[in-house]
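As a next step, we paired sequence with structure tokens, yielding the entry below.
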Amino acid sequence: MTGALSFSVEVITVSDRSFRGERADASGPALEAFLREAGYDVVGCRVVPDEQPLIEGALREAVGDDVALVVTTGGTGFSPRDVTPEATAAVCERMAPGIPEAMRAASLRITPHGCLSREACGIAGATLVVNLPGSPKAAVENLSAVIDAIAHGLRILRGGPADCAAS
């Protein structure tokens, strides 16, 4: 993995059951460990229920705290309560569809159900927001597929050189 240059990241788990304390959050801690190993500075982890206004509020707080990267886990499926992509789209000024496309392509190599994930990704100010599936295994697999590209994108988004031809 390419260096993250200590970019700050917040992890937001979207889960009714974890929010209510009925199930321990496994995805958030798995992502936190993965991101720390990749060189990111995890500055916050929180759990919110599958409620679009509350998801939007958590995203806006993280963006307002000038966090470079926000990753969400959960709420990206077909259930009527899965509204994380809609909350992400409401908060972001510009969408970055290539990141979720790459994650879905990587997932399809593992499971034929990979195409069912509705992850979204976008830019809010100078923050990149990336949705991930709710399963700890799938969340880490999806993020692994794009972590190097994300680091490069964050360098550009945060004012670094835009040398896209460099490896």
